[in-house]
UniProtKB/TrEMBL annotation:
Organism ancestry: Bacteria, Pseudomonadati, Pseudomonadota, Gammaproteobacteria, Pseudomonadales
Limits of the EAL domain: 24-278
Superkingdom of the source species: Bacteria
Range of residues in the leader sequence: none
Residues of the full protein shown: 615 to 896 of 896
Protein name: cyclic-guanylate-specific phosphodiesterase
Amino acid sequence: KAKANGKNQVQIFTEALNAEAHYKLFVENNLRRALTQNELEVYYQPKLCLKTGQLTGLEALLRWLHPEKGMINPDQFISVAEETGLIIPIGKWVARQACRVSQELAALGMGEVQVAINLSPKQFTDPDLVGSIAAILDEEQLPPHLLELELTESLLLEGTDDTRQQVARLKALGLTLAMDDFGTGYSSLSYLKKFPIDVIKIDRSFIKDIPENQDDMEITSAVIAMAHNLKLKVVAEGIETAAQLAFLRRHKCDVGQGYLFDRPISSRELIERLRRYPCRGA
Ligand code: C2E
Ligand code: MG
Ligand code: MG
Ligand code: MG
């Protein structure tokens, strides 16, 4: 194919690099405007109790609705937002939207619905992170237990004493702390005892090949049992099939999230959707 186009491998490689650099530049140049021009939107994906099917919470997932390019998913811009530091103001904005949605659902009589936001390690370089989260909770008048933070393994393991102190202060505010993408980063589990984590989210990569992959099933059931021994709640992400759901229920996984139940949806769609769920506390 290279020959047919009259290009050699080096040319193809250089072009690919240029395309990547070009895309990064596009994101850098547009993301700042995206925040001020209301191009960003937070979508919400329900998390369900696997025992009762009731809603237990939501995960806030960022979307970028670019006027020409359409919907851009976070995998395509979060890393640039991190590199440029834009994730700091964007993250605060996401936190506020999440608090408002929980308040809105309560106001609609749908009960207390916990909302989780994702925090990337870069956000912990902001010395004001804890103060700004506390201020947002206060301004939006959201009880702290209704906000959950999804943290990465690398934050806790590679983080400085300073990040660990920030995590402890966030916990002390009364927030719920979850370990996101569990199992993808590290082989040592001992850190689970050292940090004030409440929830483990088993990464989708362990769920997606259930029930075909015996190893994934062993790992998943072992992680659930271990988490329960440590008094942690377990969430399985990326549930797409009835067979996966049956396996997770059989192994007493507490909570599930995935396309089988819902894709991430806008707050407007969410409210419509929730009219069909009986909610905790409602
Ligand atoms: P994550 O926190 O692990 O979020 C789960 C991802 O899996 C989401 O992708 C969600 O849409 C997707 N997902 C959920 N259920 C299924 C399923 O059944 N099948 C499949 N194939 N996928 C499923 P999304 O929304 O593209 O987000 C990707 C990542 O971007 C997130 O992974 C998170 O790390 C990051 N992210 C998203 N929003 C934010 C944010 O506001 N701040 C930060 N710092 N990171 C964010
Ligand atoms: Mg997450
Ligand atoms: Mg995850
Ligand atoms: Mg992930």
